[in-house]
Design brief:
This protein is mostly helical. It has one domain: ABC transporter involved in vitamin B12 uptake, BtuC (Orthogonal Bundle), CATH 1.10.3470.10. The chain is built from 14 helices and two strands. Strands 1-2 form a two-stranded antiparallel ribbon.
């Protein structure tokens, strides 16, 4: 941990290793984004991709890169950052490595909102996105209210979230049984999680929300680290506990909802990204910036893997994140059990 002092007498403390890890992960995410843009039925070398991004490629290259593939990659980066950051916030607030949107019902709530629009209202893709966003917000508010009891205890929050997740999973299964064949196929693709067909219409809303909320969450890294020490310690250090917790939870719910609305409920990204980032930084605390960069890198790598191994758009990226995340979850459970924490 280093401290920088300014002429006005202020000092800023930061973790050197965490900053370096965050920068390296960001570089990996951007590098893999360039590689992913060049992957497809019309392959492009990285120099050709960079020339097309700069506007100096051939007309065919400019069209393929800037109109067809760049929006998809930007959605992948923003969704990964949003999920990684929201996962870090929820795991820090609950003080539990399983306290991620995958387990506490937020992804299932967003899926319920989207399925209701698909099955009951026959809505367009824009309406589905709004349904997913609204479902995530309503679910997050309900879990917070149900878990509140003279404060918000981490384990109670996780248990309420797991119960909400189970109920919403049953509701989603019921909605699928009520759908006709076309709507059921459309719904299955959406709830699996996919980046196929993403264009600039999905990029701008997602980018706008992330541009506002991500910096806001990053400025709360110090209070969030204090919250991990317990409410009493945070109060003693001058943190407005409930106000800070509510602000961070609302921001995390918004990030999860907008990410799910853009790409579907991608499994395990929010769970694995903060844990992997923490193991790389080897430092306590939420590690918000490394977790966000790790989320972006993971999703871009998963999308590249799905296209290279199975072919373009044959297997949704949610399948790859689910398989990799499931393996990581088993490893995490074994590790936590050996440490005596579960």
């Amino acid at each position: 941990m280093k401290a920088l002092r300014t002429r006005g007498g202020f000092s800023v403390r930061f973790d050197v290793r965490g900053a370096v890890v965050g920068l390296l992960l960001a570089a990996v995410a951007l590098l893999m984004a360039v590689v992913l843009i060049g992957t497809g039925d019309f392959p492009l070398a990285p120099p050709d991709v960079l020339r097309a991004l700069a506007g100096s490629g051939t007309p065919a290259q400019d069209f393929i890169v800037r109109e067809l593939r760049l929006p998809r990659v930007l959605v992948a980066l923003c969704v990964g950052v949003a999920l990684g950051l929201s996962g870090a916030v929820f795991q820090s607030i609950s003080r539990n490595p399983l306290g991620s949107p995958d387990f506490i019902g937020l992804a299932q709530g967003s899926a319920a909102g989207a399925l209701a629009v698909i099955v009951l209202l026959k809505g367009s893709s824009v309406a589905v996105a709004f349904g997913a966003f609204g479902g995530g917000l309503v679910t997050g508010l309900a879990i917070y209210l149900l878990a509140w009891r003279q404060g918000l205890h981490g384990y109670r929050f996780v248990l309420v979230g797991i119960g909400a997740s189970a109920m919403l999973t049953g509701l989603n299964s019921y909605l699928l049984t009520k759908a006709d064949l076309v709507d059921a196929a459309r719904a299955i693709v959406w709830i699996t999680g996919s980046l196929s067909g993403r264009d600039w219409a999905q990029v701008w809303p997602l980018l706008s929300v992330c541009a506002v909320i991500v910096p806001l969450v990053l400025t709360q890294a110090r209070p969030l680290r204090m919250l991990e020490m317990g409410d009493d310690s945070a109060y003693a250090l001058g943190v407005r506990v409930e106000r800070t917790r509510l602000l961070l939870m609302l921001a995390a719910v918004l990030l999860t909802a907008v990410a799910t609305a853009a790409a579907g409920p991608l499994a395990f990204v929010a769970l694995t990204a903060p844990q992997l980032a923490r193991r790389l930084t080897r430092s306590p605390g939420p590690n918000l910036l490394p977790a966000a960069c790790m989320g972006g890198a993971l999703l871009v790598i998963a999308d590249w893997t799905s296209q290279r191994v199975f072919g373009a758009d044959r297997v949704p990226v949610g399948v790859v994140t689910g398989v990799l995340g499931g393996v990581y979850l088993l490893w995490l459970l074994v590790t936590e059990r050996r440490a005596g924490r579960i």
